[in-house]
């Protein structure tokens, strides 16, 4: 009888420790899965490569950077750091033949909005739906203080990035890419 109680206690402790081990304290990425297009692209990357080393298969993606600050105009991410992040993202995507560049004539926009600067999912939806309908056909990169508790996420034609996760050497920009851009080959997608 005593051994059954001990066995039951050990099993119960194991069960609860497994449940609590599954809980995360910080979400690094709001990404939840691959699109059908991305799965196909990753299986068929050779289709886009040319014979004899000819390189005519690059995908060029224009980018508008949206730097979000507070209502009083403070808290902006440094534009030079955003440029460095784009350069690092280009290095990470080079094996996939994808190159990002600033949209000529619409390189950067500054937004004073405290609700966007620190937002939940509804605030992110409001930010994206307020800004991107008039500026399609590009990647819109929003840099904020807190993107719904994540380091970054993508939705529609936008990626939303946390300032503190956008430092030199950080791959948040590459990992937060929208579904229409294939992931770098070194990365298997999932939760980050």
Contiguous low-pLDDT stretches (5 residues minimum) are 4-25, 182-192
CATH topology value: Collagenase (Catalytic Domain)
Using the alpha-carbon principal axes, give the shape.
globular
CATH class: Alpha Beta
| Helix percent band | 25-40%
Bin the strand percentage: 15-25%
Work out the number of β strands: 8
Which descriptors apply to this entry?
about 190 residues; alpha/beta; Collagenase (Catalytic Domain); six-stranded mixed β-sheet; two-stranded parallel ribbon; about 30% helix; about 20% strand; globular; disordered C terminus
Quick summary:
The protein is α/β, with parallel strands linked by helices and 192 residues long. Helix content is 32%, strand content 21%. It has helices at residues 2-21, 36-43, 79-93, 114-117, 121-131, 172-175; strands at 59-69, 98-102, 108-112, 118-119, 139-144, 146-147, 152-155, 158-162.
């Amino acid at each position: 009888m005593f051994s059954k109680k001990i066995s039951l206690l050990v099993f119960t402790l194991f069960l609860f420790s497994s449940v609590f081990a599954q809980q995360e304290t910080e979400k690094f990425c709001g990404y939840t899965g691959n699109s059908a297009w991305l799965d196909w692209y990753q299986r068929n990357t050779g289709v886009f490569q040319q014979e004899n080393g000819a390189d005519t298969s690059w995908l060029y993606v224009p980018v508008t950077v949206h730097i979000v600050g507070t209502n009083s105009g403070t808290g902006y991410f440094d534009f030079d750091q955003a440029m460095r992040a784009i350069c690092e993202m280009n290095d990470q995507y080079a094996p996939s033949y994808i190159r990002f560049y600033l949209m000529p004539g619409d390189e950067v926009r500054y937004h004073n909005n405290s609700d966007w600067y620190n937002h939940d999912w509804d605030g992110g939806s409001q930010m994206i739906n307020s800004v991107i309908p008039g500026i399609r056909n590009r990647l819109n990169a929003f840099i904020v203080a807190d993107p719904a508790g994540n380091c970054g996420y993508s939705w529609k034609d936008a990626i939303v990035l946390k300032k503190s996760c956008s430092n030199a050497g950080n791959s948040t920009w590459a990992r937060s890419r929208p579904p229409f851009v294939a992931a770098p080959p070194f990365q298997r997608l999932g939760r980050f």
